[in-house]
Amino acid sequence: MPVPEQVIIGDGCEIEDHVRLRAGGNWKSASIVIDKDSFIGHSTQINVRGPFKIGSKCLIAPMCVFSDAHHTFIDINIPIKNQKCLSSSIEVEDDVWIGTGCTVLRGVTIHTGAVIAAGAVVTESVPPYEIWGGIPARKLKSRK
């Protein structure tokens, strides 16, 4: 897989086929950092306009989506495509497991040791060592 210059991949990482790492076009602050010994499953998409980080020893299962931006749709007289786009960074700290098919949206930090159940849509930050799931994701229990 060719690695764009705004992407840094740490030693010992495994990135499966069809993973898309896109650090935002003309957005100068866009970057992707994947720390050492992390795994990213096939068909995962990371589309960011700002800084994005995955910590060390993380498991990102197949078909996950990370998106740090969304379009506003306030003015019905302007096509949504032409309205303002809001962005806020995403961070995945160390030793996190994100299950198959999860979506992680703008402004979210998934803290150390957290687990995200398959298919979850994460719209808010997840505290350390908690297990979250659902749409939208919410706390299911703690690992402690």
UniProtKB/TrEMBL annotation:
Q: Which domain of life is it from?
A: Bacteria
Q: Which InterPro entries match?
A: Hexapep, Hexapeptide_acetyltransf, Trimer_LpxA-like_sf
Family annotation (Gene3D superfamilies): Hexapeptide repeat proteins
This chain belongs to which protein, by name? Acyltransferase
Tell me the organism. Pontibacter korlensis
